[in-house]
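Quick start: load a record and inspect it. Here is Glycosyltransferase 2-like domain-containing protein:
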Amino acid sequence: MAKLISVVIPIFNEQQNISLIYKAIKEQFLYLKDKYDYEIIFVNDGSIDESQEKLFKLAEINKKVKIVCFSRNFGKEFATSAGLYNANGEAVIVIDADMQHPPEKIPELLFQWENGKKVVIGIRTKNKGEGLIKNLGSKVFYWIINIIAETKIRSGGTDFRLIDREVVNHFNQFTEKNRMTRGLIDWLGFEKAYVEFQANPRVYGKAGYSLVKLIKLAMSTFVANSLFPLKFAGYLGLIITFVSGFMGFIVLIEQHFLDDPWHLQFTGTAQLAILIIFFIGIVLSSLGLIALYVGNIHQEVLNRPLYIVSKKINFDEK
Ligand code: UDP
Ligand code: MG
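Running the structure step on this input writes:
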């Protein structure tokens, strides 16, 4: 019997890309139809263009197309989570709607999966049409996360990936709110394989992930995956205290005990100012970091649902 594969596609204002990605995926599964059956789960993440109408039309024509609609824009990480939660397949493939992730690579993902790999990750070798800042930012992000996080993440890894049912089931148990889906999947472990691809420029529309959103995601990923930032404040505090203490000691001796032989002529006010600025710096940086953690704890304690589903189409009643 053919194995069911779920394809999860988060959608935010992709009216022109929907039919493109749908056709491309259908085509791939046409070649694979002896071995695999498919379902496509579109998660409409609060689009404000014609995406929803487009999706409903597709769902009418093809019952393999399933749709989850959010009541507003919750972000791609949550849309992906909702897709994974609602998927029925023995494996789930997550892919962007804008054709930046090539559907032609789906057979390769499935091949690695059949070889026993539980997670097959698309590795982006080139990012055509992306700005220098995004590319550089992504390099810096991976460099830092691999230094400070407990789990290693291969750079260039994307959300374009295949995830085995077993891993999906574990993933569905995550309750944390500040999530980067692919980071959590990497955290879960399991045997991984990598498939390289070149990212094409987005076909229509513009990227919903602004630089600011990406930086926010990177920050919350750092905080969620590592205690290093908190410890760093501690180390910094220690170093500054030690250095300024040492300097204060030198100044004290030089100015007050030896009568300024080097003619540095530090005024008392200047000495005091340096000292105070140093300590204010320490206190502020520690506070800022603690605020990040407290913010995280706060969100977890609230324990809100991750997303609100307003409509579901073509799903069996559970
Ligand atoms: N997306 C989403 N919610 C958002 C932003 C984006 O579901 O708030 C979807 C979008 O429709 C696309 C995928 O996530 O399918 C990747 O988005 P985008 O191309 O904007 O990001 P990038 O390519 O820069 O990572
Ligand atoms: Mg994109």
